[in-house]
Design goal:
Elements lengths: L1 H17 L11 E7 L3 E8 L4 E5 L5 E6 L7 E10 L8 E11 L4 E10 L4 E6 L1 E9 L3 E10 L6 E9 L26 E5 L8 E8 L4 E8 L4 E5 L6 E9 L2 E10 L1
Antiparallel strand pairs: 1-2, 2-3, 3-4, 5-6, 6-7, 7-8, 9-10, 10-11, 12-15, 13-14, 13-16, 16-17
């Protein structure tokens, strides 16, 4: 009895001394925390199927839902900079989002970005924009940098557009990191597809392993940290779906899927 009581007390003391990692909740979507200048800390997620973001309080109770205008046959790609006082001067709740469509006839992606208020009012539309970045330039204010791509040409073109913003960026303004934000291109593939990747710091060499949907390995390609993409000839692949994995020393860094026709 004394031994059991001692064990219980010891466990209690240790838990108080070292703390515990405590599960809070699970979301079936990509999400991120942000700190709003007026409304405080929030957690928001991206629902691709419904073209919306749902915003939660830190106790995980739903705070707001924002429906995002996405054209038919297009899909959400990223949501960034959910904020108050960044895109307007009146602390309106706003966000930037990016969506895309794949042209299956001509085999290329088209991206577009919009900045909207929570009520759907459009503040800015940027055709071709795939990536957005907000930076504070000392003495010059806050800038929005938009990277726009035209993949319809054989050698795709890039434009960088710069906008001045009326507000400021909080240090904790965050964005949702989509696990598939580096999509294989073209997808579906006919003669080839290019897969982008980023190896973690300290990892210089890895393998790109490709398997069919039955788990059979069909290709293995050595990659390294000196490049960020690899082009794979697919003209000898049977038509179907394939999975790829970036691995090193039995660690898996990225996974994805592409189709061969």
């Amino acid at each position: 009895m004394r031994k059991s009581l001692f064990t219980v007390l010891l466990s209690f003391v240790l838990s108080c001394a070292f703390g515990q990692i405590t599960p809070e909740t699970t979301y079936s979507y990509s999400g991120a925390y942000t700190r709003l200048s007026v409304s405080g800390n929030k957690f928001y997620l991206m629902d691709v199927a419904l073209s919306q973001t749902r915003i939660y309080n830190t106790n995980h109770l739903l705070w707001k839902t924002i429906n995002l205008p996405v054209p038919a046959n297009n899909y959400l790609y990223d949501i960034k900079y959910l904020s108050e006082g960044l895109f307007t001067s009146d602390n309106s709740l706003c966000l930037a989002y990016i969506y895309y469509i794949y042209d299956e006839t001509n085999l290329y992606y088209t991206f577009n970005a919009k900045i909207v208020k929570e009520n759907g009012t459009e503040l800015l539309s940027i055709p071709g924009c795939q990536y957005l970045d907000v930076v504070t330039v000392e003495g010059e204010g806050t800038k929005l940098v938009a990277y726009c791509y035209d993949y319809s040409t054989t050698v795709y073109t890039i434009q960088t557009k710069v906008y001045s913003l009326p507000g400021t960026l909080l240090a904790s303004d965050n964005n949702i990191k989509q696990p598939n934000s580096r999509l294989p291109f073209p997808n579906p593939a006919y003669d080839f597809t290019t897969i982008s990747y980023k190896l973690p710091a300290g990892v210089n060499n890895a393998n790109l392993k490709i398997t069919d949907m039955q788990g059979r390995e069909v290709d293995r390609i050595k990659i390294n940290s000196f490049t960020n993409s690899v082009t794979i000839p697919t003209n000898n692949y049977p038509s179907g779906s394939y999975l790829y994995q970036v691995e090193s020393d039995k660690q898996r860094f990225e996974t994805g899927k592409f189709i061969v026709r």
